[in-house]
Amino acid sequence: MAVAEMEQHRWTREEYERMAEAGFFHPDARVELIEGIVYDMAPQGSFHTTVVHALLEALRQAFPGSYIRVQSPLALGEDSEPEPDVAVVPGSLWDYQDGHPSTALLVAEVSRQSLLHDRRKKLPAYARHGIPECWILNLRNKTLEVSRDPSGERYRTQFLLKAGDTFSPLARPEAVIAVADLLP
Fold it and tell me: What is the CATH number of the domain that holds 109?
């Protein structure tokens, strides 16, 4: 007897946004849409929040005058609306009053509980949509995983940094950031 394969319903960004506006999700729910699937987001602990703000400060210094969004949606294609912990996007605040940015110069995820999700789901989505640089601040190992040069669903260049290392963002090679400032 043949067994039929069951189809998943994949949501579009438009459907997802309509569901949110209609109150489909609990007001306190933290969810995001990645490649048509709605995922619950991990709760934010104190260390996570502290690292997000340390990252924000470092990026403000590295990208003076740039628009840096914190835990805000990116409109990636028809079926993804991730909420990276931090994103440096082109333009200014008021450029996005009628819609979320559809790209970023850099996205960063602060990861402990969400580490596998960020690596397996979000990183490929960012690569697929041409985000040139993605950072995962790994709170488990206190390392920074840098991914650059997107090609399909992956990044061709990846390297790992630890406390004591310094590096420069791809879009701001003149800026130098110390990993220890991000992951004390």
Answer: 3.90.1570.10
Burial class (CB in 10 A: 0-12, 13-18, 19+), 136: buried
Q: What is the pLDDT of residues 99-118, one digit of tens each?
A: 999 999 999 999 999 999 99
Task: Find all residues with CB under 8 Å of 154, minimum gap 6, and list them.
Answer: 123, 124, 127
Helices (H), 39-87: 46-62
Range of the domain at 94: 42-182
Total domains, the chain: 1
Residue 143 CB coordination number (10 Å) = 17
Q: How many CB atoms lie within 10 A of CB 115?
A: 19
Question: Which pLDDT does position 4 carry in this prediction?
Answer: 62
Q: Between vectors from CA 23 to CA 19 and to CA 13, what angle results, nearest 5°?
A: 20
The two three-digit tokens of residue 168, written as one number: 């420069």
What are the backbone dihedrals phi and psi of residue 72, each rounded to the nearest 5 degrees, phi first? -130, 150
Site of tokens 């840096």: 68
Tokens of 175: 């800026």
